[in-house]
Specification:
Oligomer: single chain
Number of helices: 6
Radius of gyration: 25 Å
Strand content: over 45%
Largest sheet: 22 strands, antiparallel, barrel
Structural class: mainly beta
CATH superfamily: TonB-dependent receptor, beta-barrel domain
CATH architecture: Beta Barrel
Helix content: under 10%
Shape: globular
Number of strands: 36
CATH topology: Maltoporin, Chain A
CATH class: Mainly Beta
Length: 664
Amino acid sequence: MLSLFSVALLGLSAVEPAAAGATQQLSYYLDEIVVTGTRSNRTLSDTPVRTELVTERELEKTHARNVAEAIENVAGVQLRNIHGKSGKEVWLQGVGADRVLVLVDGLPLTATTGSSVDVSQLALLDVKRIEVVKGAGSAQYGSAAIGGVVNVITRDLEPGYRGEVTLDGGSYGEQNPSGDRADFGRYGARANIDMGSDQLRLRLSGSHQKSNGIDPEPATWARPGDETDRSQLNTRLLWLPNDSHRLFAELGYFDEASSSRFLNEKAGTVLKQGKEETVERWRTVLGGEHVVSDAQTLFWNLLREDLTDNTYKYSAFGEFDRRNADQVLSQASVHNEVAVGEAHLLMLGADFRHESLEQTIDGQAELLGGERTRNSKEIWFQDTWVPTQRWEWVAGLRGQQDSDFGDHYAPKINTRYELTPDSDAHQYLRASWSGGYRVPNLKERHYRFDHSQLGYVVEGNPDLSPETSQNLQLGWGVNYLNAGWLEINAFQNLIDDLIQTQFDADATAARGDGVDVYRYANVDKARTRGVETTAGWQFAPGWEVSAGYTFTQAEDRTTGFELPDRPRHQARLGLDGPAGIPGLNWSVRVRNQSSEYVDTDETKKSPGYTTVDLKLNQTLGDNLRLFAGVDNLTDTQRDFNDADDFGPVAGRFVYMGVTLGFGK
């Protein structure tokens, strides 16, 4: 397959770009606009809430196909493989994925696995940027944001007619399930078209991604990497009747079919088994933005999401454990933004949410009492105050009334102080304190995660209590003419009533089939703390270097033991530059993480690892781009015979693709 990559490079090198000799404009990373931390437009260098950003330029350079691939190079972001599936979930600052809120344009998504969102399911359709805010965000976005927020922001619709088509495919070499190195082990297509006038605009977009799986031993039954087939369709209609009003409607559809193959040992016999799963999501959003006056703007959204997740297992003896789960999320949101003089921007908002969960196994209701529901009413307030040129303060409070758990409150205060405002290398301080809470979701209380093919099941616990947290962030930074920067940030999260899975010895003994039973439970107290550093330098058009390092210490405050699945050290390195051929650029991304405990008794460790990706882009005029790359160039992979090794599942992946634009 390396020969395939060599052919791709030769092909790229031989093409003379139509725009050869054109001056390349330097777009500065720190000039990018972000909104997640304050709900208002701020440049990245000036926002009082520290934000990590994946730009549209970065998405193009790294050929990211989904959100997981888009954020894997962000400093401090830990992507973990989801047990029993091929997906990825997001951990931030040592806080697990159940406490990281994933949003699309500020609106939540329903978890498709466990209690966390599988970010590998979210194709990069019409995405302009992705913002990552670490630390408790409950005051801003409510329950489930104890660890932070990942906000996927889509492109606005502009008048005119334009579109784009992208095709790509590649091979895992000898680890293609077919065993043929020349096969496409993974391939996909994405397309979008925008059209419309100044008043009425429409977008249609779609994606199809297929992976045949990853199999180091194709001749055997078991396959470590699942086969997946994912399709996503989105539509957006925007109406601007005048300069003061914007109304939009969105309809989205997602479908996934995945297939697992594994060996299960029972009573001394090894059985060939498999699992088939289908996921279907319908998402509808209505919203509006209304300029009431020069000082006041009103925003509103209506969200409805229906998620169906169906699974069954099979062996030589037939099908079994046919489980069907249906979830519904409905939310109505409104907030008002008022500028008071030149120093204050006030926001007042409300969210009303309804959730339901219904689950059956082999046609019988599996939840106690049948369908389970939950309602919440939330009101929040925020004041952004700029008393002087140097100071900015953001204070907020959210109150939630939950149908199952009563009232909860989450405050926050953020500040930014400019140390040297008139210097070319201006320095600044950031600090924030925020409270968080997380109400146990319906899955944790009532759902049953059956991974008996992997030797365990997880039972819901209706007696869980809400989690609460306190988060502190302190940081210093320097910004040199927006082209170079360095930030150092210390953090601490104190979490009470942390919800974790615990081994249930009595239930395991009662089963008597060798399958371990775990149950959700509130463990007393936990703490995560550490230091993050990020730096970058855009020293010439096309040339850029960026780096990040995160030290994390996570412990159970009752036992003193480290919390599992949290590596102490993570590092990121990015290098970009021209290749000496007009229109051809290269990018290298390096990711490293140290070893980590995988049990609560500090007896088992997963080894650390380093991966390297190489990306190439050849631009041909304004509407054609060829690209190629090697993910995991060093072929770093876990030892599949070691149950405690949770390193990368996928080995080296070599691919190429093309993007064709049209319209204007």
